[in-house]
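PROTEIN DESIGN WORKSHEET
SECTION A - STRUCTURE
LENGTH: 1360
TOKENS:
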């Protein structure tokens, strides 16, 4: 407190508030466990838990000190509430009102006032509690009780009066300036405790005793001293509000919304509020009885009448108002039992107050007392106020009774309201007639007495007073008309709710009440504005609009009940809207308003009839639908007439006569709300029927009506006066046309629907809903145009929908172009398109080919969005966030998975129809689509490198920062997941936009499956190479997906190892089994198999057509990469893998058609060694023979050698023929593939391809040895032997000419050895061969020269 005294600031007050609140709460906590009151004379208190006298004295001294400080510095402890109604508002609202009233107050002053008031209240309550600490029992009591000795409080009356005033002031301050409602309730309850103690003290001291009726028939006694109980009444008046706010504060603080939990809390609060109101009622009854008694008047010695009037004007009205407020609250909370009880208290108070006022007015002592005149004037005002409260209370009670189905009680409430209205009308008429009579007399006397002056100076003109009296009467009639209209509305509502089925008498009663509503309106308007037509939108006042709205509500209620039930069919009942419209003139714009409400009621009745399940409503539905459509068409005509009516002409003339300085009023001023309401109601009708099934015809009708109304609305719209622009009107009309197109499509008018949808898209190419409608209409029209295909279930999904997709592509282009023109973000536009693509895919689920086209376009769009958004997001801090699960349901992988699944289903169709260009294009589209996704993944990987470079640059610049924490910020993120490095798919942004790691692997496996299915399918020969190349690309993409699924952030483990990057610099292109090149650490058996299968498919494609080579460089790099991955996986040590790789390498080398590279790879790359090992293994292992059961490896090698020879690769072919011949010799095989392909034929190829003498000589030696062996009988044909004899002789002759006699001798020896086995055509040359052989042996040269054969014989040698 010393801080506040020295520096009275808001911060010091806030600290004092906190400390005082804690001190008061601590005292309450201690008081619950320890008895603080004086228990020396109380046998009920336990001394073991009682506070000792010394402690009480010390605490009492503290309280006295606090109180002295408060008394010494009253300006620092200002806690009074300036506004007496502040208790009806919560704290925040009071601050807001204060700010509005005094705009010059600063926020700091308001805060100071709040803290000062709340802290002063707590300090005052604490001081009073400490001063009176020994006067209250506290242990085990929620509210302290006075200590009594022999039924008398030990506290003096002065002490109790001090406590009463102090606690009352403190409770008001706490309630007004804080939200501590529990504390305020306890403090205010202490006020009542002190008041009860004062009454008990006065009884013991010989106070006044009297009997009175407390309102419930029981007689009670009360004692009154010098104190009138004003503070006690204020406390009792605040306790119900405080009790209600207590439970609201608890519920708001705990955020409990469960109904079961709240019921108990609200029930407890309602009981507490009711008990406080009953206590207040009892207090008021006692005070009224005391002050109104004869003894009370005598005791007051004259002023008793004034106290009695004060009690009636203050106590009873306050009780009635607070009870009405809580009763209304209970009714809103649907606590009807509590509402009935509280409204009983309110009505009892108003009845008593009105009765007391009537008694006072009926007294004859009204003579010439000026004070009496003022009192009677106050009674008049009070009577009017109580009548208002009573009528409102009866309205609330009537609503509560209707809710609990006490219809008779509700009717009685309405009757009481009507009686009040009649009485008030009678009183007003009497007062008006008396006033006018007095004014007439005063006019005849040419003077005006101040008695009859209604307001203003005493000397005012009688005519002015008369006119003012007339205005006051009209205002009173206005209020009466509003109340009678509301009363009639309530009666109609009560009759509807009380009767399940209305009889004819009920309808008659309802018609009478509705007629009375219209009559009230007519009488009021004619009496107020002097016009003969109903003018609901006149300048009278807001009550006129209220009357109009209530009349429309009554008409709506009646018509809805009659339209949506059979009563309207069986009985000839009046349409309330027709009665309403008939009461107006034809040129009144209000007719359109009423007609609009009639239309709306008919639409809602039609909807209710469709929703009803209690009886058959087919006929009723049809009738209501037709009635609503007919009314809608008539409405268009009415609006058109209203647009072209006199009001429009007047305004248009004014506009034509405009000058430079005078701006005319816009045309059709005041009609815009009518047209907007018509637009809204017709839109609602379209929306209702659009949500129902089999209502296409109704939707078409309503769309036509709405479009017509929109065109009219467009003509009266003033863009410069806050209206919408022409472009906005086009967008609204386009939306309705899109709905119409959809309805036409559903009804079977496919051509008209497509035309309407195109018109809608031309008007508004930015709304995506119109785009979806255009797509749907185009799809339905194209499916209808191909009925021959659609009737066949097997071919129904083969419809390509090329026109639909072309229309879609054009629409997307238009949409993106218009988005740029409207300065919209291109990325956001594409993201919005992605959302509608999901809708279009759902529409195309029955057409697989169309669905595939949509999914492909969706992927292309998604990859564009990803390429534009991912770099910026990866640069931000989002890259460091991990993703526990996917955030988006339409990531790129989601769509790609669906696309691949659809493609797999359609694969048989594409393979069988691959002759067509469209189906071939689908294979190419698959390659392009998968490539787009791979480019996104590669971009994510490469973006990490740039981020890493920036981080390294920032790390190098750390010296410029003084903060050492900067080093931590620039360190590279080394966080791990599950003990491993952070995968790029673990980033939240990648996980959300692209997909998950598991999906990436799934895509790789799906590409593998699709490729295998294509490889096993029958493809036309002319397309086999093309399809095989695409399959190879699919497999390489599968390999890339498999590797990228394991890519780690900032590691770039896949760089240079992807087929998409042509395997970078990690492959030399040289195929060798001796190479040490390794693949990526992320490779797997699956990725390696994808590469090997890709190479195999290219080889197959190359074997189909031999005119040109296919992807030679790509497949060689692919094979080298596969071999590197096999080495990384340590699989090259496997004999089967090694053999398969060798064969594949040989095929690749031959397909490359590069003899030099192939020869080098065969000899230096170890391929020949691997092939020889394979051939040897085949001979020695039965398992190997089973493995090559279809074609032994020698046969395969022979075919590859032949292929190399055809490609002009002579050196490579020679190497292959050599090991082929060696393998046949070891295997003792006479031929390969077929009988004419003998070992002799192989050796003939070797001889023909040999480039050295030794190779030729060795080959002939091998032939000689073979012929000498008995195991090779039949290995050579006659043609082979003839060829060897002649060729050996001729080559020997050539060697003799070159001077190589030893090799010539060897060749001639072979010729001589083979000569006996030759044919007769060659044997004739035997002498010549012998002569040459003898010449060479004798070193005499060649005797006979070369052998000469016929041309045919020579050709036959080489053909075989």
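SECTION B - SEQUENCE
RESIDUE ASSIGNMENT:
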């Amino acid at each position: 407190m010393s801080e506040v005294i020295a520096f009275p600031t808001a911060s010091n007050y806030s600290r004092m508030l906190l400390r005082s609140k804690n001190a008061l709460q601590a005292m309450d906590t201690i008081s619950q466990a320890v008895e603080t009151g004086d228990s020396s004379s109380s046998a009920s208190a336990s001394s073991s838990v009682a506070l000792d006298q010394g402690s009480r004295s010390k605490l009492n001294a503290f309280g006295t000190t606090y109180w002295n400080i408060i008394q010494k510095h009253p300006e620092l402890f200002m806690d009074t509430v300036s506004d007496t109604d502040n208790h009806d508002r919560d704290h925040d609202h009071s601050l807001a009102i204060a700010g509005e009233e005094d705009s010059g107050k600063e926020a700091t002053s308001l805060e100071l006032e709040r803290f000062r008031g709340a802290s002063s209240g707590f300090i005052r309550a604490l001081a009073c509690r400490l001063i009176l600490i020994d006067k209250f029992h506290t242990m085990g009591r929620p509210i302290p009780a006075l200590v009594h000795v022999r039924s008398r409080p030990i506290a003096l009356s002065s002490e109790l009066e001090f406590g009463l005033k102090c606690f009352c002031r403190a409770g008001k301050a706490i309630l007004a300036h804080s939200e501590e409602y529990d504390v305020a309730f306890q403090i205010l309850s202490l006020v009542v405790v002190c008041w009860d103690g004062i009454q008990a003290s006065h009884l013991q001291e010989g106070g006044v005793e009297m009997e009175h009726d407390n309102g419930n028939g029981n007689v009670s006694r009360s004692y009154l001293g010098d104190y009138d109980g004003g503070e006690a009444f204020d406390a009792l008046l605040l306790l119900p509000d405080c009790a209600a706010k207590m439970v609201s504060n608890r519920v708001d603080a705990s955020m409990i919304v469960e109904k079961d939990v709240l019921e108990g809390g609200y029930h407890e609060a309602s009981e507490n509020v009711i008990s406080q109101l009953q206590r207040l009622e009892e207090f008021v009854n006692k005070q009224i009885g005391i002050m109104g008694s004869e003894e009370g008047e005598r005791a007051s010695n004259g002023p008793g009448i004034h106290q009695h009037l004060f009690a009636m004007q203050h106590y009873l009205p306050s009780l009635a108002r607070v009870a009405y407020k809580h009763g209304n609250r209970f009714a809103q909370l649907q606590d009807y039992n509590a509402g009935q009880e509280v409204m009983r208290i309110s009505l009892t108070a108003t009845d008593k107050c009105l009765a007391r006022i009537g008694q006072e007015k009926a007294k004859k002592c009204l003579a010439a007392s000026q004070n009496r005149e003022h009192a009677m004037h106050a009674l008049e005002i009070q009577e009017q106020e109580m009548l208002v409260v009573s009528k409102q209370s009866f309205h609330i009670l009537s609503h509560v009774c209707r809710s609990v189905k006490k219809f008779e009680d509700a009717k009685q409430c309405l009757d009481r309201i009507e009686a009040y209205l009649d009485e008030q009308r009678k009183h007003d008429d009497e007062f008006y007639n008396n006033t006018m009579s007095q004014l007439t007399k005063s006019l005849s006397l040419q003077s005006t007495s101040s008695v009859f002056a209604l307001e203003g100076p005493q000397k005012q003109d009688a005519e002015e007073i008369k006119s003012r009296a007339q205005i006051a009467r009209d205002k009173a009639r206005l209020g009466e008309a509003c109340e009678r209209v509301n009363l009639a509305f309530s009666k109609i509502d009560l009759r509807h709710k009380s009767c399940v089925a209305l009889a004819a008498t009920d309808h008659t009663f309802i018609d009478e009440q509705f007629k009375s509503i219209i009559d009230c309106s007519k009488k009021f308007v004619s009496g107020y504005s002097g016009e003969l037509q109903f003018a609901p939108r006149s300048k009278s006042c807001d009550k006129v609009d209220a009357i109009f709205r209530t009349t429309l509500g009554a008409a709506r209620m009646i018509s809805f009940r009659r339209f949506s039930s059979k009563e309207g069919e069986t009985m000839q009942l009046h349409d309330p809207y027709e009665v309403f419209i008939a009461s107006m003139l034809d040129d009144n714009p209000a007719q359109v308003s009423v007609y609009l409400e009639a239309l709306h009621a008919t639409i809602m009745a039609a909807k209710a009839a469709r929703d009803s399940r209690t009886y058959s409503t087919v006929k009723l539905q049809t009738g209501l639908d037709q009635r609503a459509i007919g009314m809608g068409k008539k409405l268009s005509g009415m609006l058109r007439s209203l647009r072209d009516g006199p009001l429009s002409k007047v305004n248009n003339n004014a506009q034509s006569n405009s000058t430079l300085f005078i701006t005319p009023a816009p045309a059709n001023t005041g009609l815009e709300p009518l047209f907007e309401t018509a637009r809204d109601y017709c839109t609602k009708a379209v929306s209702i029927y659009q949500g129902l099934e089999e209502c296409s015809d109704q939707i078409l009708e309503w769309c036509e009506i709405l479009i017509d109304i929109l065109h009219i609305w467009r003509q009266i719209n003033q863009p410069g006066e806050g209206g919408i622009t022409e472009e906005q009107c086009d967008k609204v009309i386009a939306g309705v046309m899109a709905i119409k197109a959809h309805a036409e499509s559903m009804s079977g008018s496919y051509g008209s629907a497509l035309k309407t949808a195109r018109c809608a898209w031309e008007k508004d190419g930015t709304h995506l809903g119109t785009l979806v409608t255009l797509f749907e209409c185009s799809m339905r029209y194209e499916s209808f145009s191909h009925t021959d295909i659609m009737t066949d279930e097997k071919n129904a999904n083969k419809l390509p929908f090329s026109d639909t997709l072309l229309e879609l592509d054009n629409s997307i282009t238009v949409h993106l172009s218009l988005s740029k023109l409207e300065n919209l973000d291109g990325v956001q536009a594409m993201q919005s398109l992605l959302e509608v693509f999901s809708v279009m895919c759902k529409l195309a689920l029955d057409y697989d080919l169309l669905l595939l086209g949509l999914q492909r376009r969706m992927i292309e769009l998604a990859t564009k969005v990803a390429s534009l958004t991912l770099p910026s997001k990866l640069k931000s801090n989002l890259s460091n966030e991990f993703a526990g699960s996917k955030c988006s349901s339409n990531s790129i992988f989601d769509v790609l998975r669906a696309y691949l699944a659809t493609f797999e289903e359609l694969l048989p169709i594409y393979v069988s129809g691959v002759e067509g260009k469209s189906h071939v294009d689908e294979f190419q589209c698959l390659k392009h689509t998968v490539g787009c996704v791979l480019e996104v993944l590669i971009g994510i990987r490469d973006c990490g490198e740039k981020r890493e470079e920036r981080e390294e640059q920032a790390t190098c610049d750390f010296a410029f920062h003084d903060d050492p924490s900067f080093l931590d910020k620039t360190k590279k993120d080394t966080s791990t997941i599950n003990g491993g490095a952070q995968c790029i798919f673990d980033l939240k942004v990648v996980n959300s936009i692209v997909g998950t790691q598991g999906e990436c692997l799934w895509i790789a496996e799906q590409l593998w499956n699709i490729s295998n299915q294509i490889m096993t399918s029958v493809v036309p020969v002319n397309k086999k190479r093309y399809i095989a190349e695409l399959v190879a690309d699919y497999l390489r993409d599968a390999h890339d997906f498999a590797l990228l699924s394991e890519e780690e952030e900032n590691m770039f483990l896949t760089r240079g190892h992807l087929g998409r990057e042509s395997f970078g610099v990690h492959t030399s292109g040289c195929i060798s089994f001796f190479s040490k090149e390794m693949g990526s650490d992320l490779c797997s058996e699956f990725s390696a198999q994808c590469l090997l299968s890709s190479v195999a498919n290219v080889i197959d494609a190359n074997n189909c057509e031999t005119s040109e080579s296919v992807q030679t460089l790509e497949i060689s790099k692919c094979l080298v990469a596969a071999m590197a991955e096999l080495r990384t996986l340590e699989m090259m040590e496997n004999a089967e893998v090694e053999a398969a790789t060798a064969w594949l390498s040989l095929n690749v080398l031959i397909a490359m058609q590069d003899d030099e590279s192939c020869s080098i790879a065969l000899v230096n790359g170890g391929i020949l060694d691997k092939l020889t090992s394979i051939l040897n293994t085949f001979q020695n292992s039965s398992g190997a023979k089973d493995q090559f059961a279809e074609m032994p490896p020698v046969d395969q090698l022979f075919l590859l050698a032949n292929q190399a020879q055809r490609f002009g690769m002579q050196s490579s072919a020679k190497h292959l023929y050599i090991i082929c011949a060696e393998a046949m010799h070891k295997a003792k095989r006479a031929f390969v593939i077929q009988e004419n392909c003998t070992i002799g034929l192989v050796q003939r190829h070797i001889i023909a391809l040999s480039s050295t003498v030794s190779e030729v000589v060795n080959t002939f030696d091998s032939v000689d040895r073979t012929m000498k062996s008995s195991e090779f009988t039949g290995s050579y044909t006659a043609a082979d032997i003839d060829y060897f004899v002649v060729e050996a002789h001729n080559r020997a002759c050539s060697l003799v000419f070159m001077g190589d006699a030893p090799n010539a001798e060897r060749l001639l020896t072979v010729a001589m050895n083979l000569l006996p086995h030759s044919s007769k055509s060659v044997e004739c040359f035997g002498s010549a061969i012998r002569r040459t052989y003898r010449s060479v042996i004798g070193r005499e040269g060649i005797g006979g020269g070369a052998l000469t054969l016929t041309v045919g014989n020579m050709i036959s040698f080489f053909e075989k």
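SECTION C - NOTES
The longest strand covers residues 208-213.
The chain has a mean pLDDT of 76.
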